[in-house]
C-alpha cells in the first residue's frame, strides 16, 4: 500500500510468478480507495469470462462483506458495475475496445496483461486504450500485473523494463547481507530435494526453507535501474521506504519519468512465498522435472520464477564466457600450427577508426583453432591503413613439419562505414578477399542458405555477397556450445590476446524473442562484439570454401607459400552463382 499512497509513484508494474497474492492486492487496494480516497476505478481482465468471474468471486466479496465499503455504496450495484460516494467501479475485459469508451478513470488496475490482444477490434493495444482513459486525472494510479509468458512478445516484461525495476532484498540469516533470491544461486541434489537451499553471495552460507519467513519480514524493496539526476549518472545506493532510488545529491527520488513521477516496477517469485506448496524442496522437484522437458520449463519459468521464457532462446543459448575462457588450451599457433591444419582463413571487421582482424586455422570436419585476434588503427579509407592490413594478411604461418602457409582466403565486412571505399579496396584482391555484408531482415532470416545474394557493384567493380547472419549466428552458438574436441569444435590458446575481455565480446549477443520476432541482439551493457562477428564471418567462409578445404590434407594443405599464394584459381569461384550449392546442406554439418 505504500506504493499506492506515495505521491511520487504514478505507475506500478508487478511482474510475478503465479499465486503471490495479486488479486488480494487489488481487492485491498480497492477497499482502501473506496473508503479513503474515492474516485472512478476500472479493473481490466483478459476476457469477458475472466471479468465476470473476478467480479463475482474476488472484488464482489469486498463490496458484499467489508462494512466500510458497504457503507459507501450508492446507486448502481451490478456484478461488474458498482457506484459509491465519490466514484464508480467497473470490471471490464481487454478483448473488447468498447470497454474503454466514454469513461474517465482515476484508478486503473490491469490483470494478466501478458494475455491481452495486440490489436483489439483494430483500435490498438488494449493497455494503451485503457491508460488513455486516465489522462485527465492529475493524481492517477495505474497498476499492471501479470505472470510473464513467451520471451520477445511478453507484455509484462516489456512494461517492467520501462520501470525502475525493484526487487525484494532479504538479509542472509548468517551474515545479514541483503540480497535477491536468484535461481542461479539455488542449489539442490536430485537425490534429496529436502536439502534445497540458496547460497548467500556474501558468506556462502546455506539459506534454507525455515529461514524464509523472518528474511522476507525483514526484506526491503530496492529499485535497481541506473538513472540520471542533478546532472549525475547514478547506480542506486539509497532508497526510501517504498523502494524508490534516491539521488545522491538532492536526496529526492531520482528515477522519474517525463512528468516528474515514478514508474515503479516490482518483481516477485515463488521462492519468497511462505507456502508449503512453494517450499524450496517443492521448487527443486519442479525445476528438476522441467530441466528434462522444455515444455515444462516454459511453465516453470513463467509460473514459478516469474520471468519470460522462450525455447528458441534456450536452443542457442551461449555458454558463459568464463567457461569458454577456462577451456583454453596450451598451444602456440603463431609459432607452429597443429598438425591437423588444412588451411588458414582470415576475417576482417571494418570500424570507423580501425580494422579488427582474426586468423583461424581449419582442420578436418570443420575443427578450428583460433590463431590471433588484432586491430589495425587508422582511417579504413587511408591507403596506409589498408597497406598495414594487407601486410597482416600476408603473415606466414609454420606447419608442424616446418613448411609455411599463408592466408588461403579472407572475408571482409564492407557493410556500414565507407561501404563503397571498402569495395574498391577489395576489388584488386577478389578471389583472395571476399567482400561481404550482413543481412538479417525478417523475410530472409529463416532461409537455410547462408548466402542470400551475390552482386557486383557497378562502380567499384567488386563482387560482394549478402550473408544470412541470423542462421550463421545460430551456427556460431552451436559451435561455441560444442564441448567435445573434434568435428566443429573451436580451440582457443592460452595467451594474453585471448583473455576474459575477448570471451566477453565473443559471447556479447543473445537470442531474444520467439517466433517471427526472434533475433540476435547485444546483451545489456555489452558494447563490443567484434570477435563474435568475426567468428560468424569465418563460419560463412568455411562453408563457402568447404569443397576445396575437404579436398585438402595435412600433407597438401591450402595456401602453401609460393608466387601465387594470394590467388585462388578461377575454378573455385563459379561464374554461374547459385544459393543451393552443396555447402548449404545442413545434414552434412
Automatic annotation (TrEMBL):
Tell me which residues make up the Terminase large subunit GpA endonuclease domain: 264-548
- One Pfam family named in its UniProt record: GpA_ATPase
Residue span(s) of domain Phage terminase large subunit GpA ATPase: 3-221
Q: Which InterPro entries match?
A: GpA_ATPase, GpA_endonuclease, P-loop_NTPase, TFA_Chaperone
The UniProt entry, under PANTHER family, shows: PROPHAGE TAIL FIBER ASSEMBLY PROTEIN HOMOLOG TFAE-RELATED, PROPHAGE TAIL FIBER ASSEMBLY PROTEIN HOMOLOG TFAE-RELATED-RELATED
The protein, known as = Phage terminase large subunit family protein
Say which species the protein is native to.
Marinomonas rhodophyticola
